[in-house]
Amino acid sequence: MNPAVTANPFQTLGVPESMDLSTEQVESAALAMSVRFHPDAAGGDTNSEAMLAGVNHALGVLRNPETRAIALLELRGGPSASQDRTLPDGFLADMMEARERIEESVNADNRAEIERWKAWARARRAVHEGRVAELFRASGDAGSLRCIRHELNAWRYIERLIEQLP
Q1: Where does residue 162 rank: exposed (0-12), middle (13-18), buried (19+ CB within 10 A)?
Q2: Cα–Cα distance measured from residue 83 to residue 78, given in angstroms and rounded to the nearest whole number
Q3: 7, 61 in Cβ contact below 8 A?
Q4: What is d(CA 152, CA 144) in angstroms, rounded to the nearest whole number?
Q5: Could you report the average pLDDT of every consecutive run of 10 residues in the chain (166 residues)?
Q6: Contacts (Cβ under 8 Å, ≥6 apart) of 56
Q7: Where along the chain do its domains lie?
């Protein structure tokens, strides 16, 4: 099977199924595949557009660590967000408190405090990203896959918070 038409974005780009990919690795692999399947280089292959679309889709998935983790979890048979909405213990209470304090900073138009909250949220995102990567490296058993899903759920919550910060 041609790698550009597989549903596995890692196979499409010819990179390892791992969280431990740099943006440069992903982009370099995508560029190599794009050159290979570019209509001018594909020698009139009628499938070159579909193959190039597959490469672009894989690039979009793997360039972003969160969507890369979701793809990897799916490939390993882990639960989707709709199958398991669980968050790590204490996470929701912490987020409710943080959101209340963020709202106070926004209402007071305290730019310095808002910037501090943005930095806090980015740091929290990094923690969840690190935990997910570590869990993928540690084991692929069902319990680990559920823990990865819980961390991904929290990570998504943090991403939404970052998107909503002014």
Answers
A1: middle
A2: 10
A3: no
A4: 12
A5: 69 96 97 82 69 93 97 96 96 97 97 98 98 92 94 98 96
A6: 30, 34
A7: 3-63, 91-164
Residue-by-residue DSSP string for 68-132: HHHHHHHHTTPPPTTT-----TTHHHHHHHHHHHHHHHHHTT-HHHHHHHHHHHHHHHHHHHHHH
- What pLDDT score was predicted for residue 1? 43
Domain 3-63 in CATH: superfamily? DnaJ domain (1.10.287.110)
Nearest to 87 by CA among 138, 20, 165, 160: 160
Stated pTM of the model: 0.88
Rounded to an integer, what distance in angstroms lies between the CA atom of residue 21 and that of residue 17? Answer: 9
Backbone angles phi, psi at 24, to 5 degrees: -65, -40
Q: Residues with Cβ < 8 Å from 77, sequence gap 6 or more?
A: 145
Q: How confident is the model at residue 48, as a pLDDT?
A: 78
